[in-house]
Amino acid sequence: MPSSIPPLPGLTRYTHWGAVPEGLHTRTQLDRQGLKPVGEPLGQVLYHGNCYAPLYEVTAAVPKRPCSPAQKEALDRARDLQYVCRRCGHRDDEPLGRGRWCDACSGPAELFDVHDQAQHHARQLVDDPKAVLLVVDVEPDSLPTAQAVAVVGIRDREVLYAAAAGEYGTPARGAVLDQLDALLADRRVVREPDYMGPSSRYPSRLLYLPRQTVQPGPHPVHPWATAHSKLNPSVARIWSAWFGWTDYSYSTIPCVPRDGASVPWSRSLDVAADGRSMAAVLHRIADGTEPVWEKAAWTIDGHGEPDLSWDRRRATLTALA
């Protein structure tokens, strides 16, 4: 039940049950008498302090059509299933709600849902001929030869652009930015974030000095340098959602393992090779061959994977449309 039900416009409001005239009943009251309302409501009554229930004329109500034995059995079965977890079969004392997960299964189910969405996202990227990976390495303390930028196509893993990044504020860096503007203008850009590994690889490093404040929101000149979002997450975010590692057993937020040793793509001085390695990871996630954490919540509790896959969900929604 919602927290409040606003009044219907144009109907008389009764602020307590004693003020309701004889012959006006709510749907619930009519249902208890085996009746159902006919026509528009004639008034409304306030209950629970912030909810209004429409009132119908009892003399206009008609008998409800009785359920057949098969319908009654189906309804009884549906009511009974509200107490049974759809995943492990545990029976609870209270209805489990729309998701029908018990407390023990709600966490694994939520993690598997994120895992499943990661595969759906990877498949979108692999199928998109304009999706590319942008890998940069402009750490000021690294070797000059390591400061480079590369663009790699995700579908065919082809290196579309690779060059030295140049120093901040120099014509060489300006030429790199011009090349990226032209190449990435109409493409879907996926990035590798910098919270792992030996160097910073955010694309915004090409536009700002170290420790300089990065302005929020899309960059007015170079939109490809905007920080990743939920609609276009980084490779690390897609992989961590697939892998299923969590800080704590009760956590429902997957993340990259702290030591970074588990990341399956290369972190080297060759950013183009690293981009191809990350594209290969997205391909393995898309076809389901990329391993998951051996302790992923939905694999170790003995109840398998919840029935939450995006493909099954989309098929159901399409059928109902």
Overall pLDDT, averaged?
Answer: 83
Sequence stretches where pLDDT stays below 50 over 5 or more residues: none
Order of SSEs, N→C? EEHEEEEHHEEEHEHHHH
Biggest β-sheet strands, sense, barrel: 4 strands, mixed
Estimate the strand proportion: 5-15%
Helix-residue proportion = 25-40%
Radius of gyration: 29 Å
User: Which strand order does the major sheet show?
Assistant: 1-4-5-2
What is the straight-line distance between the termini? 26 Å
How many helices? The count is 8
Number of strands: 10
- Per the principal axes of the C-alpha atoms, what is the gross shape? elongated
Question: Helices and strands: which structural class?
Answer: alpha+beta
Task: Give the helix/strand layout.
Layout: E1 13-14, E2 24-25, H1 27-32, E3 35-36, E4 43-47, E5 51-57, E6 62-63, H2 69-81, H3 103-127, E7 131-137, E8 148-153, E9 159-164, H4 171-183, E10 188-191, H5 235-243, H6 271-287, H7 297-300, H8 310-320
Parallel strand pairs: 1-4, 7-10
Antiparallel strand pairs: 2-5, 3-6, 4-5, 7-8, 8-9
Overview of this structure, please?
The chain is α+β, with helices and mostly antiparallel strands and 321 residues long. Helices cover 31% and strands 13% of the residues. It has helices spanning 27-32, 69-81, 103-127, 171-183, 235-243, 271-287, 297-300, 310-320, and strands at 13-14, 24-25, 35-36, 43-47, 51-57, 62-63, 131-137, 148-153, 159-164, 188-191. Strands 1-4-5-2 form a four-stranded mixed beta sheet. A four-stranded mixed beta sheet has the order 9-8-7-10, sandwiched between helices. Strands 3-6 form a two-stranded antiparallel sheet. β4 and β5 form a beta hairpin. α3 crosses α5, α3 crosses α6 (271-287) and α5 (235-243) packs parallel to α6 (271-287). The longest helix is centred in the middle third of the chain and has 25 residues, at 103-127. The radius of gyration is 29 Å and the shape is elongated. The protein starts with 12 loop residues before the first strand and ends with a helix. The relative contact order is 0.12. The model has no long low-confidence stretch (mean pLDDT 83).
